[in-house]
Amino acid sequence: MDFNKNFSNVSESYLFAEVANRVSKYTKSNPDKKVIKLGIGDVTLPLVPAVIKAMHGAVDDMSAKETFKGYGPYEGYDFLRESIRDYYKSNGVELDLDEIFVSDGAKSDLGNILDIFSDKNTVLVPDPVYPVYVDTNLMAGRKIIFADANGDNGFLPMPDYSVNADIIYICSPNNPTGAAYTKAQLKEWVDYANKKNAVILYDAAYECFVSDGDLVRSVFQIEGAKTCAIEFCSFSKIAGFTGTRCGYTVVPKALEKDALSANKLWLRRQSTKFNGVPYIVQKGAAAVFTAQGMKEIKENLAYYMDNAKLIASCMDDLGVWYTGGKNSPYIWLKCPNGMGSWEFFDYLLNNAQVVGTPGEGFGKNGEGYFRLTAFGSREATKEAVERIKKLLKK
Ligand code: MLT
Fold first, then answer.
1. Which residue is closest in CA terms to ligand 1's atom 6?
2. 306: pLDDT strictly greater than 80
3. How far is the CA of 236 from the centre of ligand 1 (A)?
4. How far, in Å, from the CA of 204 to the mean position of ligand 1?
């Protein structure tokens, strides 16, 4: 037997595992210090009452012979897919039910979708980028090319027609930079993908934070996207499902090549390798899209965005350059005093006991930048901001 040698091309630990290792080492040697974690984008508010109520009801369903559920449909229960379809409709996007696939999260699907594409495809990813896009393709041995995102283009690279790519990753609002493409910019990407016969793997996990009118919540709000895009979304950020696990992927039937349909291939892949998301979790997810669920969820999203404002205004006070924090829960800042991103990580951890994510972990263009998340509790965010101000004002 031989192991997959492509694994030698990925770093030994996943970025957030590396951050966790360093923090755990620090806390072991400094047990008396209170560390505030604004590193990984993990939520801190509990599931909203509407979701909990629906999940309790589903637990009761499982206790009675008449309502008990065994294996569910591979693509997810209709009740959840119908609510997702209606949510898209409210954003002006018409979907057929069989274009929606429920899963245990966007991260899994973003990796798993690669099963339906040839290993010979060339992949175009922005740099910096959510490490999952790069690592999963490295593991499969695909050729990766990078589109430079940097201060000059506002961390929003645009298509270059001299570059040929087959699979293109776009995340907007972006993780890690918080920058978001306008409708007009996304239209340029959609036109490029259609022209090049490429597919856009569009990560919409942060769509719920969009507030500006010239931004979209779904790539399918852009004309032409159904022939070139697959969209991944998640209940993690909108509804705090990071530990509960539920997401969905939209694979349009119009996405075809050589008489093969992406939608059919994905269904075949999922029905072979995936047995669906628990009924109880899907019932909770469906409650997110009810009027009561949405009302409660909007309060949570506003809470996180108020945290983002606190962090952003701290950076304003300190005169530190940053992007994000407006249509996104991430603040992407330039490390002060020319520090490198891991250097700033250590400096902040050792001197203020605040954890963020070093930009370099998201790609070479992330060097010299740093990401803070607004998903912490209000108390922790306030305290972190005070500590950062005190440290950097010196
Ligand atoms: C992040 O911090 O980038 C995200 O929480 C990671 C994820 O969603 O998998």
1. 41
2. yes
3. 9
4. 13
Q: What is the pLDDT of residue 14?
A: 86
Q: Which of 16, 109, 169 to mutate to test the pocket of ligand 1 (most atoms within 8 A of CB)?
A: 16
Of 172, 167, 143, the C-alpha closest to 157 is: 172
> pLDDT for 318-376, tens place per residue?
999 999 999 999 999 999 999 999 999 999 999 999 999 999 999 999 999 999 999 99
Q: What is the pLDDT of residues 44-60, one digit of tens each?
A: 999 999 999 999 999 99
CA quadruple 124, 130, 133, 134: dihedral, nearest 10: 80
Give the mean model confidence (pLDDT) for residues 93-102.
98
State the sign of the Cα–Cα–Cα–Cα dihedral 263, 265, 266, 267: positive
pTM as predicted: 0.96
- Going by DSSP bridges, is the β-strand pair 256-257/229-234 parallel, antiparallel, or unpaired? unpaired
Residue with tokens 């493409």: 181
| C-alpha separations of 156 from 127, 223, 237, 290 in Å | 10, 20, 22, 34
Q: Is 35 in the pocket of ligand 1 (CB under 6 A)?
A: no
For residue 237 and ligand 1, the question of a CB distance below 6 A is answered with no
Q: Is the CB of 41 under 6 A from ligand 1?
A: yes
